[in-house]
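Please decode residue identities from the backbone states below.
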């Protein structure tokens, strides 16, 4: 369960960084900004739901939902970069964070399967 708190902390730090970036988005991109915010909250929600539930099957479902939301954030990040709302460096930083979060999540999934 300790690795899950690491996942939660790193997710929160990534979301805080992303929130600083979306402040600079143009007013035309309100939908993209709202989708990023909604998906960010969904990431945290899935981690809390994972912590609360005891059933392995339900825990895995929330981890998989977390991975889907993480992939969506990655997609939104690529769109933001293609629309020149974030720089290449910011794209690389976010992508590295997403990769690290995915690795931790897949490790948690493997750990849950073994138990």
């Amino acid at each position: 369960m300790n690795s899950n708190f690491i996942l939660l902390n790193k997710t929160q730090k990534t979301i805080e960084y992303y929130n600083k970036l979306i402040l600079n988005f143009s007013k035309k991109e309100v939908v993209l900004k709202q989708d990023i915010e909604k998906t960010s909250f969904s990431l945290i929600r899935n981690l809390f739901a994972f912590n609360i539930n005891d059933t392995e099957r339900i825990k895995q479902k929330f981890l998989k939902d977390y991975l889907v939301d993480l992939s969506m954030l990655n997609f939104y990040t690529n769109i933001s970069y293609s629309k020149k709302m974030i720089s290449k460096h910011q794209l690389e930083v976010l992508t590295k964070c997403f990769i690290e979060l995915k690795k931790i999540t897949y490790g948690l999934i493997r750990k849950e399967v073994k138990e």
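Observation: The longest helix spans residues 56-82.
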